[in-house]
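re: ur question from the group chat, yeah i did fold both. here u go
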Amino acid sequence: MTLTITIIIIAITCMVSFTAFSNGKIEDDLIFYPPAVTEQKQWYRFVTCGLIHADVPHLAFNMISLYMFGRYVEEDFITVFASKGKLIYLVLYISALVVCLLPTYSKNKFNSNYRSLGASGAVSAVVFAGIFLHPTLKIGMFIIPPIIPGFIFAPIYLFISAYLDKKGGDNINHSAHIWGAIYGVGFLIVACYFLSSFRAVENFIEEISHWHL
């Protein structure tokens, strides 16, 4: 197996997550806790919270999703950005961990009861970057076979996430999923504009225009 950025991220995340499962102090030190950022300036928590997960299913869902999409998105970034591709892909993932939590932080700066963990926002950024590059590629979710093209799956995913975020009560940070997804697309568009001759928006429109059932 080739050692890719995606594999490295998965390996590090799994190692830290499994360690934190049996060590509450590690989880407390790494988890996203807004008051610690506000009052103690522990900004690193925006990133470190993506290294820990609530349980094995939570970790498995995120890392399997990252593996399924990330390996192809990483290859696409190498094609689009040449020698800078791997670095830009890594920047996308790490910066998405931060950006997806900014709205959450804004709402919970002094909320001592709020905590968040997991890499879902960054994984959403990678998935949506992949969808934007290949909008007609059919997507499925584990037991659901890949039957829905990405450009149709994406708004459905965002709508459901927005509904669940508004509903609340399930201890899942749906806001991070939404903003991570939006950021993934925005990052790709801006990066392509400044660092590549590839025009992501034009490619997206062209692929959809040629799509048929």
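okk and heres the other one u asked abt
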Amino acid sequence: MSERHTCPSSQAGPGATLLGILGPGGRVVYTPNGPRVTPEFQARLAARGGGPLESRYRFAAPCVESGCVFWDGACRAVDAAHEDFVAVGGALPECGIRETCRWWAQQGPAACAVCPSVRTNGSTS
């Protein structure tokens, strides 16, 4: 597991960080200083209902590299995001993990242009 890079599209779980909340239109509203996920915090979010946490929130956690289906020596999740979503121009979103983000390390600002559209689990409509 990589301690240096952070996955911006991780599963909810203890130790992950709340990266953002899916807002209107399904775009991520970032929580730049999002809290760490504890079992209690995870239970509170789950109690709100509405499907899997990952379909309503975005989480960040250490990149697991070869432990992820998108890994082939590099992260292909950001490539898939470019195939599925239109890149948005303008200022980079405020992000609490950019310094360690795996996608940023691979693609820089181009990764940030699709990141707000990504939903880790669930329908994008």
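fwiw on the second one: The chain has a mean pLDDT of 89. The chain has four helices and four strands. idk if thats what u expected
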